[in-house]
Amino acid sequence: MSRIDALINELCPEGVAFLELQELFDTKNGYTPSTTNKSYWAAGTIPWFRMEDIRENGRILDESLQQVTEEAVKGGKLFPANAIIMATSATIGEHALITVPHLSNQRFTSLALKPEFSSLLDMKFAFYYCFVLGEWCRNNTTTSNFASVEMSGFKRFRFPLPPLEIQREIVKVLDAFTELEAELEAELEAELEARRWQYKYYRDALLAFSDQDIRWAAMAEVGEFFRGRRFTKADYVEDGVPCIHYGDIYTQYGTATEKTVSHVRADMASSLRFAQPGDLIIAGVGETVEDVGKAVAWLGRDEVAIHDDCFAFRHSLNPRFVSYYFQTTAFHAEKNKFVARAKVKRLSSESLAKLTIPVPSLEEQARIVAILDKFDALVNDISVGLPAEIAARRRQYAYYRDRLLTFKEAA
Hints:
With 411 residues, the protein is an alpha+beta fold. It has 2 domains: 17-161, Adenine-n6-DNA-methyltransferase TaqI, Chain A, domain 2; 215-359, Adenine-n6-DNA-methyltransferase TaqI, Chain A, domain 2 (Alpha-Beta Complex). 37% of the residues lie in helices and 24% in strands. The chain has 13 helices and 26 strands. A 5-stranded mixed β-sheet has the order 2-9-6-7-4, with helices on both faces. Strands 14-23-19-21-16 form a 5-stranded mixed β-sheet. Helix 6 packs antiparallel against helix 12 and helix 6 runs antiparallel to helix 13 (385-404). The two termini are 24 Å apart. The mean pLDDT is 92. GO terms for molecular function: DNA binding. Residues 13-193, 220-390 form the Type I restriction modification DNA specificity domain. InterPro entries: Restrct_endonuc_typeI_TRD, Restrct_endonuc_typeI_TRD_sf, Type-I_RE_S_subunit. This is Type I restriction enzyme, S subunit.
């Protein structure tokens, strides 16, 4: 029997009390001080937390990437130290324990423990239990303009209150387990990054053809470009016409795909434009120069609707070969010369048509694709190699954490 089990048997054998979030915490929405008032952001000293802070520095934080001045604080009141910020829109469920007085942006709801419960709830324990809350949030969202948590249910979410001695013992165990898991994951991430660089090196070398005398051609010589037609996220449905939006190409897809993550209404079919099996679908716009020109080979059995900021490249080459070439350093160096660098970066079909591509024999294309498919699976497929090991570590940690945080409720 573990020490925690022994404590539960001794201190709360009949179960523990649960209280609603709104009973335990004062809640407050985050906000962004006016960005037009430059004095709010000049030499500020008050931490202002965004999702980027959690991504960059973890989940227990005492400093932020950006600071604001005192005059930027609404009503002169800061969120108190040792409060939890929970993302209740956009990156739902992400959270952090902030150990200093602070502000946060509007994605977050602040949970500050009411003073009368300070002797009943350890905030580090509450932080760990917010992983359970975060999962509840992801399963209880509304989708009007964008996903957000159903807040009336959020406020009724119930926290367990085991004796403080048990809470602190659980925190001690989870702190140690978190540190161990982070060390193991860092080692795996470093190994994965090394594999990615190795993969990039061999991909670029294979597709440079420096030791072969092959034909290079402008893309207009080996295929045609077709632009998609407009649809919006308001047109999305669960089951309809398969479609690919330009943003999905650099967030949802790899080298090739046989199915889509999105569908639009079936009654729109006559107004859409479609890519055919074997076409390369290319993002014509992006927030960065690197995003523009990302591509995915469409290998589905049927045609697929494409957004008007996408191009379909119809050709007689091996589609995976073309998609792999679009990932190379050489291709991006040439492509970058043609990107229109406005606020939104763009590539035209005329510019794409001028880019050059190697045209080896179909047998050589197939040979290269077979090699790169193995590399790609090892590095990127979540079910193969190091990514699977990292995912397994995270699942193991989440399972163990959830077991520790499961309590019988007292009658």
